[in-house]
Amino acid sequence: MRDKLGLSREKIDRARILAEKISAPILSFVGKHTTVTVERATLRLAGCDGADREGVPVPNLVVDQLAQAGRLEGGALDWYANALLREGCGTAELDAKIAAGLRVADLPLGDAGAARRKGEELAKAGLDRVAANRDRRDALLERWKGRNNDPLLYLIVATGNIHEDVKQARAAASRGADVIAVIRTTAQSLLDYVPYGATTEGFGGTYATQENFRIMRAALDEVSEREGRYIRLTNYASGLCMPEIAAMGALERLDMMLNDSMYGILFRDINPYRTFVDQNFSRMINAAAGIVINTGEDNYLTTSDAVEKAYTVLASQFLNERLALAAGLEPWQMGLGHAFEMDPTLEDGFLLELSQAQMAREIFPEHPLKYMPPTKFMSGDIFKGLAMDTMFNFVSKATEQGIHLLGMLTEAIHTPFMMDRHIAVDNAKYVMGNIASLADEIEFRADGIIVRRAHEVLDRTLAFLEEIEAKGLLDAIAEGLFADVKRPRDGGKGLEGLVAKGEEYWNPVERLLEERLGLAAPEAHPYDRRTTDHLGGAAAGRSETKGGF
Amino acid sequence: MATIVKPYGDTLDDGKVQFSFSLPVADGPKAHEAARLLVESWGFHDCEVVHSQAMSEDFSFFVAYAKAGSGIDFDRVVADDAREGESMTMDEIDAFVRDKIGRKVVVVGACTGFDAHTVGIDAIMNMKGYNHHYGLERYAMIEAHNLGAQVSNERLVEYAAKVGADAILVSQVVTQKDVHIANMTQLIELLEARGERSRYVCVAGGPRLSNKLAVELGYDVGFGRGSYANDVATWVAKRLVEKTLAGR
After folding, report:
1. What integer pLDDT is reported at residue A202 of this predicted model?
2. Domain boundary among B19, B44, B72
3. Which of A321, A462, B5, B227 has the fewest CB atoms within 10 Å around its CB?
4. Does any CB of chain A come closer than 8 Å to the CB of residue B18?
């Protein structure tokens, strides 16, 4: 990549050091805590599944029983493994018994060594399935190498009915989409459980369930085969069940997951402590699964002004990067987010958008940046909207973004119609084909608007990170420094699901993840292991799996 | 005499209308003809399908033009819009409130239910506002409380009582499957059950809300697409003055 902006290497390094310092106390807290959904995700990866007659998932039944009995601080898998040995059956049979009323927390503990061996065996089997999914994806990406668009064209389906979603996803993929995201129903982020089975009812989206994941994966595999192009599947590891959704995504070979370290706090009013613990475990699962995460910086700009608050986007990208590294994700797995959201009436606004996108590209050279289309200033004027999307497509290609979420001309009106997606793909293919080599051709004036703006945003970002470091991240969030939203550390939803790990805490899934990801054992602080020169070291490991990026 | 108006393409009364739609059939001459016949079956004539394209194996996309069969008597049209003439500006509203009410007007707003979209309530309430119309937080004579999104009706009502609100603003962006109707109705029922309905000016807003629907559901007023903070503030301030006069 050519350096077009002349940004100071020292300043960028300084920002990374600040991000590391800001993250350190958060990670120290994370290491000492678990949550109800971390435990449920652990159970799910160990094979626990199903639901009772009321639709309460079996992992919730187990964790709720243990929480009531005050035993969660030891970890849930011990008790589940003990129950398997006590009942002398397999996971499916045990799940059915639990759904029918068996209380795992009340069973007397048997041979502790045997239970732990059983737990280890289940954890290994679960993570082996995840690894096999990753190998399968790598093989498919290798087989169809070079067949995807660059940037990857990302489309959303959102009918509420998984079977209808499948039809729309098939059409979108055959039109040229590389990534299909099944947007979730509006209510799901605040549910402290993951619904079970295939679903046909949702509002503004479709429930994320493991069965829905499986159905869509199978459909996209079929389309991939027909198109000779790997179609990636995306869902949302966000809300109160981040780790569980990450687990389901890993088990069903999803390829990307929305996963932001602070989104739940800022935009869903989920408790900060809960979120930081959940995001870490969910990201470890994403890391092991070879999933590319998409962070949510674009959301800042829907509440704050995109010109004034551009530095909050860059600051958050540094923090998301740092917390992702601490969870074992590598730069090629970090689809750091940003967006084309400036007021279209602004003179030279396009230059500022180009500057922001190029700056992100140069500061995060190996990361498949996730670029989001205009939403805030989209209106019922679909013709103007199409023109704005065209400008967005231009910036994306001209600055070599990695993941391009296609803008819809009807953004402000309804969830996309089939023809809206068709128009969006056509537009992107036209613009991106027409300027295919432009990024190689253009340079920017050293004293021009674009270069000056990038320097200014980086400077403000540094000052902002200094301020956060001085205050501490939790106080910075409480004071509304991000997205103009104030979230006190003890406020928000889900705090009751946070549990301090006891001396006896045992979680073989976590331990195996740490081992396979090369993270430090929990006694040491995971963030100590990795230094700021991660771009060399950490990226080297699996760079052969970069696939389409 | 009636004034009949028809769509205007390039000649008065040519009735030209632009269409784009998709059909769940494979593209081809038969789909093309089906699209043309379909448009004419809706009462349009001289339909020309000017573009067709396959969107997938079994979906096709069309752009067409046709002439409208009928016009409308413009004089008999009554608009459903809460705004009566020009709304006051922020400064005018502040002066109006200072003069006629003599204290700050307390407004509580939220996007209620499971709806996670703050964009509507933020456009009306945030300091910055939207499209060069400052939000209520910027008004000197309005004390604005924006509770954000996914707020339960119960919490909104409790909060309004706590801060002694004059007006409650409810934003509803997601209207898929009419989820907003049940939610909006529940708020009014809740206020009535608590005997507090008359205490507040209740305002509903959202891109697909009409004043008519809001009034039907028991709100004082509804604001749809294209409404700004000063439209809402003008209406609320005037209504509060009317309420005070009526209460004397």
Report:
1. 84
2. B72
3. B5
4. no
